[in-house]
Amino acid sequence: MKRLHLPLFLGAAALSLCVTPAVAQDAPRWSLAIHGGAGVIERASLTPEQDAAYRASLQKALDAGSAVLARGGAALDAVQAAIQVMEDDPLFNAGRGAVFTAAGRNELDAAVMNGADLTAGAVAGLTTTRHPIAAARAVMERSPHVMLIGAGADAFAAQAGLEQVDPSYFFTERRWQGLVKALTEAGQPIPDRPADAPAVGAQAALPAPPLNERKFGTVGAVALDARGDLAAGTSTGGMTAKRWGRVGDAPIIGAGTYASNADGCAVSATGSGEYFIRATVARDICHRTAEGASVQTAARAEIDEVGAIGGDGGVIVMGRDGAPAFAMNTPGMYRGGASSNTTARVAIYADED
After folding, report:
1. d(CA 120, CA 69)
2. Beta carbons within 10 angstroms of residue 214's beta carbon
């Protein structure tokens, strides 16, 4: 049975693994896959406690999305439920765990797409909306637009009744110290610590950052529901010390997020966003599946192309038959999957089966 799952969790090594027909399973009624970012995530970088903390957080997100699908809920609802759990978790670079810009702010991006009708919504540069993924969905369902940015996006989210928080809600000491380190190494000025930030040491109970972890911060989910509909969503805090209002691939429909029932594909990406934008990664993967490629083959081929132009990262992909794929060209990607006929599984390192 394990040979059936190997291509789903291996990264660069998963190039030519076969599935024995005798162990093939019926297609699941529903299926869900999630990620919490890809990058240089190695066993030597995480203590056993940190490893366990990430796996528990991934499992919590899987449980939230799976509960929606198990009771017959929509793929969109499952994607949002899973991502909101990760947006509230300071371990991930999204929502509460977001990194800081060079100016010492947290600016949040997200996107969601409905494979049934190709509707989509995205937001960028949020600073007061607790759940950016909810704001992206509100743009999709309650406005004539696809993307809103900055103060206007926060104002729209507030008008839509979404929870607003003080910007200090997103402050974590781990990310602040990451900003200080990055700016110091770059020889750039360090902004004043936010006046409303918690006192130094006040967040000692939060998990310590992994040693030498270098991760592209994004969380995402893709799902297939019992009606056969696909959906994808992605949420991120972007890059540490980003400047000039930089926006990466996560909220760009077709680059970091895409879903299409007709193409049989839903994608959420994580990586060096500028390269994923140039390669239109998410849309291209779905184009490959529409032409007959399996989701694993399509994912692997696209990540190889990203690598060829200098980009690093990974993708999660869901097929119309409920088969998920995970592909990366990095040493690790926080990820997991569950379905109606398989046991939920989480993984961190590229060589995990």
Report:
1. 20
2. 13
Read off the pLDDT of residues 40-93 as tens digits, 9 standing for 90 and up: 888 988 889 999 999 999 999 999 999 999 999 999 999 999 999 999 999 999
Classify 132 as helix, strand or coil: helix
Angle at 313 between CA 312 and CA 317, to 5 degrees: 140
Q: How many angstroms separate the CA atoms of 42 and 322, rounded? A: 29
Active site residues: 218
What residues contact 48, with CB distance under 8 A and at least 6 apart?
none
Buried b (16+ CB within 10 A) or exposed e, 72-86: ebbbbbbbbbbbbbb
Cα separations (Å) of 129 from 137, 150, 156, 318? 13, 11, 10, 28
- The predicted-structure confidence for 272-288, as pLDDT tens digits, reads as follows 999 999 999 999 999 99
